[in-house]
Amino acid sequence: MTFTRFTDLSGPAVTGLSPDTVAVLPVGAIEQHGPHLPVATDYFMAEAVAEGAARAAGADREITLLPGLAYAKSDEHAWSAGTLWLSASTLFAVLDDIGRSLAAGPVRRLAFLNAHGGNSALLSVALRELRVKYGLFTFLLHASLPADQGGTSPAGELGLGVHGGLKETSAMLHLHPDLVDMSQARRSVPEHLTAYEHIGFGKRVSFGWTSDDFRTGTGVIGDPTEATAELGRKFVESAVADAAAALRECARFSPAP
To answer: What does pTM read for this prediction?
Structure first.
């Protein structure tokens, strides 16, 4: 069993890949993350978790790591300089083209490793589209499922930590501490949302939002002030282990009995 980088393979080597090889596509974003984090935070996370998981799963499965997508669906941050985003139709077309291209070879399993919550709904739609059009087995993994999509948020963030808060800041302190300016970190939790019983992150009624709707003044939705590199190490290692376990299942999964 092997881990390979798709970009390192020759054409004949790609032809020799097994149909059960899982091609892993990291999907991130380039967008504002407040004054304390780099705009490539989600891209760095997608790449780090995808590579770590692919290497770990490659010990007993056939895994190939595709070059990641840095630009994605980030229109909720379009108000801010530094956000470079694709429309939903453009990103969907890119995913379709990648699926079509991959299906021209032997590989029949494609896993998206997503690190930006704004991509999730579109990626979920793409799963079935690529299954129907090209016969690929398709999967969606998350570096961390955000609180507005059923994931958890630290207690101090009141279930509202979805962007630039404790988890992302800690992860970046672990992965790229030179790019983090903790002197600029500010608590920016929209606590007024807790007054709504039915509408909110993780509640029965979701809502469309942009990151400046909350009027936090920073573009952050969360509390990065208690972030540490040690918390980030634990978070990233846990994300890698979970994703590696999922990739092992992706390599043998079949919806049929």
So the answer is: 0.96
